[in-house]
């Protein structure tokens, strides 16, 4: 299951870059996290796409973040 | 919200004390033990895909660096070994149910345990067992279908493997069956608070991203239910204590990778086969914001319940008969005088 060229190998390799790229988007992630956390407080309710704006910002930052080490 | 503690409800019909032998021929080995209720029970639990769990454990055992993910099982195994040493007895034959790569056996010495039998459902784990000084036999067996006869073992241990068992009452019954009278069972299972940070983050993120959520962390037994289960299985002199281990991770993805490396991936039948990238990203962000430590790492809580149960034997002390008291609590204030009086009279 550690084959490099298979679908499984490529998916796992892509997943391994996630922590780095997420670390590059600390501010957007914190904003999104705060929004979701605020909805868990008393009186708030969490519905679908409640924090869609913050998540869109996080997603675009994440997509734009390049991994620092090249190659799979 | 997912109700994790409603899994094992107490049975309606209480069992008679002791193991009732209805059909001796069927019960030559432990797997013939009938569950503690009528034969036509609609409550056969089938939560976990055992075949999938076998594959996951096999995969985990074949990792390049298996000891990288073994820290949790090592810690719990050393705690169980401590408890074994605390009992002032030696055990000629012992059994390890769901042994993994033999984490408990490496802590034991020849004086305490004479012969050690290890069982696990994953053959790769049994092939790569750790070094241990006591003679060991490895048996490929499922925790719910133990292929041993009655009254075989002085000691049965189980470390962090009973939480993937479908029918826990029956598994405990079988463990009770293979124990000799005056034998002891020492087990460790995960408690209800385990990985609550991960569970909550995934729930919140999935609700926000997808509108609903599916369970991603498997249900664990509550302490109360654990006591009931052990009692129903026939164990006496129960002890259950809890320990919380908090491990810090750099991020949620590392935590999930470690869980996978331990062989603890989800294998319940109702698991969602897909976790969207967006949801994972959202959950990682929520986890970090809600639970991060001062130094930026993320904690993950593992709550472990250690349970000790004994199989009944006449030599074990029993509660005194009602009405056999010779002193009253009212005399407690005078206890020094009474004790010295007794000493003088002797």
From TrEMBL, chain A:
It comes from the Eukaryota. This is NADH dehydrogenase [ubiquinone] 1 alpha subcomplex assembly factor 8. The gene is NDUFAF8.
From TrEMBL, chain B:
Transmembrane segments: none annotated. Keywords: Methyltransferase, Transferase. InterPro entries: Malonyl-ACP_OMT (IPR050602), Methyltransf_11 (IPR013216), SAM-dependent_MTases_sf (IPR029063). It comes from the Eukaryota. Gene3D superfamilies: Vaccinia Virus protein VP39 (3.40.50.150). Residues 95-186 form the Methyltransferase type domain. Residues 19-43 are annotated as: Disordered. The keyword Methyltransferase applies. Pfam families: Methyltransf_11. Belongs to the methyltransferase superfamily. This is Arginine-hydroxylase NDUFAF5, mitochondrial. It comes from Echinops telfairi (Lesser hedgehog tenrec).
